[in-house]
Design brief:
single chain, 228 residues, mainly alpha, Growth Hormone, Chain: A, 8 helices, 76% helix
């Protein structure tokens, strides 16, 4: 079921590694930010959900443009730029104070969505374009598995770092103020920075491509149709 020889391709292996790291950082952001909004800024659940939509909306707008552009300029530069933008966003999230406004959070989440949208389509194209046509289904399944594993590991990483740097008794409080909020923010900053490091490494691994593997996923699929 799993074609291990696919991992002999440098592009395939490193593009999947980039996807894993980026999705880990993505779920550091998605998992932790609602706690910050609800416990520190004291927003109601409906307002938290509304603010969090700024991330997927940005992805929805940018991803199709990035995918089209990657077919013209290649995947390496765009994937690196997108992952780097995500790292910048997480670093900026780590600097949020206990008195931040909703706008402060929204534009940082939108920036992360911008980076994710720029990264995902070119990186997916690199994975699919580096796989032989008969094994495109297997390659797609591997990429989907990598995404799911990245989500799980991202939540685990976020929780582990937060628990390591924030007092455990504070984490049980639904609303935080004063010194408790400051202690929680201290752990939150380290967790956001950990996520930023992960996607920063993804930006570096996105630069690793095989010279002989420059086909895009679209070219692969077009050739597959023509062969029929």
């Amino acid at each position: 079921m799993l074609k291990l020889s696919l991992f002999r391709s440098v592009t395939f292996s490193f593009a999947n590694a980039s996807a894993l790291l980026n999705f880990m950082s993505q779920y550091v952001m998605v998992f932790l930010t609602p706690f910050y909004l609800q416990r520190v800024l004291h927003y109601a659940p409906d307002n938290v959900g509304l603010i969090m939509t700024s991330f997927p909306l940005a992805v929805m707008v940018v991803a199709p443009i990035s995918g089209s552009l990657s077919d013209r300029v290649g995947t390496k530069t765009l994937a690196c730029l997108g992952a780097g933008t995500c790292a910048l966003s997480l670093f900026l999230m780590s600097q949020l104070p206990a008195s931040a406004s909703s706008a402060d959070v929204v534009w940082r989440l939108a920036l992360f969505g911008l980076g994710t949208g720029i990264f995902q389509s070119p990186n997916n194209s690199a994975v699919m374009g580096s796989a032989p046509r008969p094994h495109l289904g297997t390659a797609s399944g591997i990429l989907a598995t990598v995404r799911n594993v990245g989500m799980v590991l991202g939540i685990a990483t976020a929780g582990a770092v937060l628990y390591a740097f924030a007092p455990s008794h504070i984490l049980q409080e639904p609303v935080l103020e004063g010194s408790q909020a400051a202690a929680f923010l201290s752990g939150l900053r380290y967790a956001y920075m950990a996520g930023g490091i992960l996607t920063g490494v993804a930006a570096l691994t996105s630069l690793v491509r095989s010279r002989g593997e420059k086909r895009s996923a679209r070219e692969n699929l077009v050739n597959g149709r023509n062969s029929r």
